[in-house]
Design a protein that fits this description.
The complex is a heterodimer of chains A (149) and B (656).
Chain A (H helix, E strand, L loop, with lengths): L8 E6 L3 H10 L8 E6 L7 H9 L4 E6 L10 H19 L6 E5 L5 H18 L4 H14 L1
Parallel strand pairs in A: 1-2, 1-3, 3-4
Chain B lengths: L3 E6 L11 H9 L4 E7 L5 H14 L3 E6 L2 H14 L7 E5 L1 H5 L5 H20 L7 E4 L3 E5 L3 H12 L3 E5 L14 E2 L4 E2 H14 L3 E4 L2 E9 L2 E8 L14 H5 L5 E2 L8 E2 L2 E2 L11 E2 L5 H5 L4 H5 L12 E7 L1 E4 L3 E3 L16 E3 H8 L20 E8 L15 H15 L4 E6 L9 H10 L4 E4 L2 E7 L2 E8 L4 E7 L1 E6 L1 E3 L3 H8 L11 E3 L3 E5 L4 E3 L9 H19 L3 E4 L4 E3 L9 H5 L5 E7 L5 E8 L9 H5 L5 E3 L4 H10 L1
Helix pairs in contact in B: 1-5, 2-3, 5-18, 6-7, 6-15, 11-12, 12-13
The chains are: A alpha/beta (149), B alpha/beta (656).
Amino acid sequence: MSEPFEPKIIAFVCTYCTYAGADLAGTSRLKYAPNVRIVRLPCTGRISPMFLLKALQKGADGVLVSGCHPGDCHFTHGNYHARRRWMVFRSLLDFLGISPERVKFSWISAAEGGKFADLINSVTEDIRKLGPFDQYKELIRETETPATL
Amino acid sequence: MAKIGVFICHCGENIASKVDCTKLAAAIGEHPGVEVSVEYKYFCSDPGQESVKKAIRDNNLTGIVIAACSPRMHEATFRKACAEAGLNPYLCEIANIREQCSWVHTDKDMATEKAMDITRSMIEKVKRNNKLQPIEVPVTRRALVIGGGIAGIQAALDIANAGQEVVLVEREPSLGGHMAQLSETFPTLDCSQCIMTPRMVEAAQHPKIRLLTYAEVEHVDGYIGNFKVRIRMKSRYVDIDTCTGCGDCMTKCPVKKIPNEFDCGLGKRTAIYTPFAQSVPNIPVIDKTSCIYFKNGKCKTCMKSCQINAINFDIKDEFIELEVGAIVVATGFQVQNTAGYGEYGYGKYPDVITGLQFERLASASGPTAGKILRSSDGKVPETVVFIQCAGSRDPSKGVRYCSKICCMYTAKHAMLYSHKVHGGKTHIFYMDIRAAGKGYDEFTRRAIEEDEASYLRGRVSKVWEENGKLMVRGVDTLLGKPVVIEADMVVLATAMVPQPNAKEFAKIIGIAYDEYGYYNEAHLKLRPVESSTAGVFLAGACQSPKDIPDSVAQASASASKVLALFSKEKLEREPVVAATNEITCAGCWGCVLACPYNAIEKKDIFDRSGRLVKRVASVNPGLCQGCGTCVTFCRSNSIDLAGFTEKQIFAEVMGL
């Protein structure tokens, strides 16, 4: 093995809790793995499973969804919608033969900068262990090749 | 064709030390659609903003990306700059390369690569941004102040004195809060009641203040400028308009031995009672749990004793619905439950008391009329030991923070005791003396030098009883020796903690709180009185432990924020709202189910002859808060959220 595999992870977070928690990790100067790219949304309720699929399709090795703790949603219950979608999406991935371990879910409040940093580190390590996500790319190659002819 | 300007900020060394900004600017300059890609030391500075404006004008930019700190810091700043340069402010996006990149990573190459990804994705997003116009909403010029302690009263008076209507809600039967319980206040030693009760009366009599005591806020709906509030008026079983407050009912009530909450259990009260003699309003309430009539249906002694028939056992709780434009939350604090301090013997030995109980003993209106007496035998204690940080700064008890007021009130207690009991001896165990405040350090010095309080730096491990004395074993870390003191009374400076229902209440109002239950401010330094929810402001110890001057200052600050809000006829709101596509909407009403704000209505579409063609969903932009749950819910992709459209987000993901 020459270089260790550096996974690319895309995080979909709500602006009120997790995005603010990530900012807090910054203002507290905590250090964490640089593998995560954050997409900010008003609420986890806005997160469509299509976004997650698109991220995986575009080369992400893992996807993270994080929002306010249950009961703390700024929009009262967007995170409950997110949680329900999440359960269905996970079983769909499982059905398709994609490891559900590639998609993570977490609750992080605006006060939990430390938890955010720990989460990013642990998610990065988990995805690193799973290795690069080629399955989907293979699939795309198969379906796209004839079309480009 | 998109012409995007990208402005990469060094933020001094904050970004530039971990992200190679020159490399970043060069790489971004190659990105399709990017017209300008420049770096600068501080784009938020005046010359920085001017250069952004100039670039917009000179190049006819169609959108800009500021790669700098979090949008929570300066999004508003740069949107304003955009507007000044003639570009729609919603064509500006912020790439967060400080809080979420340079500050959290150590490897410069990796950080630079990440910054590139972040900036690129924002470029792709901003290319698809639409010009948006802020939404105007009317403002209801009436404020709701929750909590009738010193902070709530101050906020209510400040707003009312400026001529605006205020509704002041207090959960207890009387205004006053904790400040009314105090004996004297540091650092001036003026009597708390003497400065507090006139304020209470002023608030109650103010023509612009509607006072609702023994009432609780049960439900809050709406948004800044337009809140709808439901308040439960708990039944006093005494008609508030008829009662004169003569007190006959209280003297006749046969249930006389209920521990008085106001005296922290040191005094007794009847089942029909006012919390204290100076209560405002001076109208009693019946404590349903202790009243004989409510237990077995017989008694009504109070009712018979009332000359004007003000008592009525059939009065029910009432609900009041109100519209208000702003809310000030001033719900205060509680003293930590000392049950976790078995080693100090609280609850086991009656002469181990809390600081608040000592306040009641020292208060002229307290159960001992201001004499410091032991609860056990009514004798004057000759030696008193004070234990500071009983709870505060102790992670093992769940309170890591400093309660801020204990150093000062303990010094005050020692002083009051030595003024009242000549020849009495005081010992104070402390960790550090934190006396930052005007006249505070001088005050603690006075306690030590003039009133001969003996300060011992160290912790107490155990308090036990021996031959009628309380034995206090601690350590004097400055001498490096264990000490045992024979005391007659032990006073614990217990931690200030949030109200027990603080978290549930925050959910009712819709504001954020920290791990303890203290309410979060919008920005710790720059927006210390605004909550996370627009139109809701914070005052007093519900936000963090505070003394009286700090609470009053924050209350006045909140009041000024409310008045600024009320100074406008209409408010501008962010146009991040959902809108439906009426052509494709199939009318399945999934969005109606998903919407937490009932902002989606059914709209009938008629043809020219007036025939109903179809019914579609339609979003009320005044009610929509922009969460976007409906967008994800929509089966036919007929709703989109301005500012976070499907196109924008997909583009953002593609850019990463």
